[in-house]
Write a sequence for this structure.
């Protein structure tokens, strides 16, 4: 993973995320963004994260946890990543790239990967029983 | 190295690489010392067709990115439902080139040592 590619990826994804947030906040679109849900009629592991982020923006921490615990992670990433990318580009450093590679090496270790997979699976199973 | 062996390697592995990479690989292998041949021969590459199928079937869970070793991007894709499904669809077209690039990296790492 080169620096240029990673930062381009992150910028594009954050932009899509922000456009999606503003759009769904002001126009209440009646579209289902999740391809997985539309095809299989089963919620995916991250269904409800848009509502979770909105709940966080309104300060409802319990509601955000109910919609999807991953919303906390997405909220933090969407706040921090654009700032971090801009900081790296302005100061010509590679702190984010190094952090990304460090995280990647962490997730290749079994004692971190297995709990993470179990957490995602548990969250997914919880999604089946929630009214979303 | 033997030109015949290099041709054999190129012929049996050409689906794992992009066509523009094959020339460079051929030049590198011809100049390679003979004792490294065994190490090159046993390398395992990821099949671009397989990753494409995985991407179409399970792309919104990020499995295709995990498969080729992009763990960080895989997690990103997983927790955002395939980037609101947009990234998942874009990746149907990007994943084969990404796989070939990963294969090239694997080969280069083997050539270095």
């Amino acid at each position: 993973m080169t620096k240029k590619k990673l930062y381009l990826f992150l910028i594009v994804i954050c932009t899509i995320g922000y456009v999606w947030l503003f759009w769904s906040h002001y126009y209440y679109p009646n579209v289902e963004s999740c391809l997985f849900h539309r095809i299989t009629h089963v919620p995916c592991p991250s269904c409800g994260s848009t509502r979770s982020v909105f709940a966080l923006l309104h300060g409802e921490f319990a509601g955000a946890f109910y919609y999807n615990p991953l919303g906390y992670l997405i909220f933090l990433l969407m706040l921090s990543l654009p700032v971090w990318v801009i900081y790296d580009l302005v100061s010509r450093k590679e702190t984010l790239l190094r952090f990304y590679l460090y995280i990647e090496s962490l997730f290749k270790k079994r004692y971190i990967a297995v709990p993470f997979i179990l957490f995602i699976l548990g969250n997914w199973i919880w999604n089946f029983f929630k009214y979303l | 190295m033997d030109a015949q062996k290099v041709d054999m390697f190129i012929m049996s592995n050409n689906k794992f690489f992009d066509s523009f990479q094959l020339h460079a690989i051929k030049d590198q292998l011809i100049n390679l010392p003979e004792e490294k041949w065994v190490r090159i021969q046993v390398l395992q590459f990821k099949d671009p067709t397989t990753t494409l199928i995985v991407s179409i079937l399970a792309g919104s869970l990020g499995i295709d990115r995990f498969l080729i070793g992009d763990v960080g991007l895989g997690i990103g894709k997983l927790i955002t439902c395939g980037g609101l499904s947009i990234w998942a669809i874009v990746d149907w077209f990007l994943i084969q080139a990404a796989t070939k690039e990963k294969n090239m990296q694997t080969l280069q790492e083997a050539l270095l040592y």
Observations:
- The two ends of chain B are 16 Å apart (CA to CA).
